[in-house]
Amino acid sequence: MTPPLPHITPDLLLKAYAAGVFPMSEHRDDPDIFWVDPRRRGILPLDGFHISRSLARRMRKKGYMVSLNTAFSGVLDGCADRPDTWINSEIRRLYLDLHDLGHAHSIEISTDGTLIGGVYGVTLGTAFFGESMFSRRTDASKLALAHLTDHLRRCGFTLFDTQFITPHLASLGGGEISRSEYHQFLSKALEKTASITSEPLESDPHSVLQRNTQTS
Q1: Which helix (H) or strand (E) segment is 44 a member of?
Q2: How many other β-carbons are positioned within 10 Å of the β-carbon of residue 16?
Q3: Into how many domains does the chain fold?
Q4: Whole-number Å distance between alpha carbons of 94 and 23
Q5: Helices in the chain by DSSP H: which ranges?
Q6: If exposure means fewest CB atoms within 10 Å of the residue's CB, which of 29, 79, 96, 122 is most exposed?
C-alpha cells in the first residue's frame, strides 16, 4: 500500500491497471485514494467458472433480464450502497469517466425493469479487472458473473482479475495466484486486444449453461 494520492486522472488509472495495481479508499467519506498491489491475487478462470446445481436451476427458470452497459451508474451506485464501502466520490467519478471512454463496463441483472444486481470492471488488452458487484436478490450477482464470464470468453478475453478472493468467488471457481504469477498473466493479456462489444451479449441462459458445460 502506497501513500494517498492527491489526484488521479483516467489515463493514470489505466496505466496503474497495466502495472498491476488498482485504487481504493478507506471508506466513502475519506477523500484519499491509495494504490493496492496484493501479495496474493484473485483470479476467476474464464474456462472454469462453476455453476452450481441451484444456480443452474435459477438460470433455467429465467425470469430475469441481462444487459451490458445499460445502467453503469446504477451498478456503480448499487456496489457502493452498503454500510462499509471503498467507493468514495472521487473513485465514482473516475469510473464514470472510464465508462465514457469505453474502458469501464457493467453487466446488469433486472426483473420487471428493476435493477437487482450487477458487476462492473475495467477492460485493457484481453484483461477484465473486476471491481465490484452487488445483489439485491438471491443469486443476482452470481447470474451477472455467469453471463459475464461467458461473454468475456466469447469476446476473446484471457484474464478475469477479481483482485481478492472471497468465499462467494471461491464457490464459483475463483482462486488465488502469487503476485509474480499474476504479473505474468497480465503481461500476456496486454499483448493482445479484445473488445467487450465485439459479440452480442448472450441473453439465453440455456446457451450459457451449455457452453459452460463444454468448457468446464
Answers
A1: none
A2: 17
A3: 1
A4: 10
A5: 10-18, 53-61, 72-80, 89-100, 140-154, 167-170, 179-189, 205-215
A6: 29
Q: Identity (one letter) of the amino acid at 9?
A: T
Contact present, 177 and 185 (Cβ < 8 Å): yes
Query: Residue 4 domain-assigned?
Result: no
Give Cβ neighbours of residue 201 (< 8 Å, ≥ 6 apart): 66, 67, 68, 107, 147, 151
Q: What predicted TM-score, i.e. pTM, was given to this entire model?
A: 0.93
**Is the residue at 100 inside a domain?**
yes
CA dihedral 50, 213, 116, 101 (to 10 degrees): 90
Q: Which domain holds residue 180?
A: 10-215
CATH (domain of 199): 3.40.630.70
Please state the length of the chain: 216
Beta-carbon neighbour count of residue 69 at 10 Å?
17
Query: What are the pLDDT digits (tens) for 1-34?
Result: 455 445 789 999 999 999 999 999 998 899 889 9
The CB-side HSE value for 153 (13 A sphere, CA atoms) comes to: 19
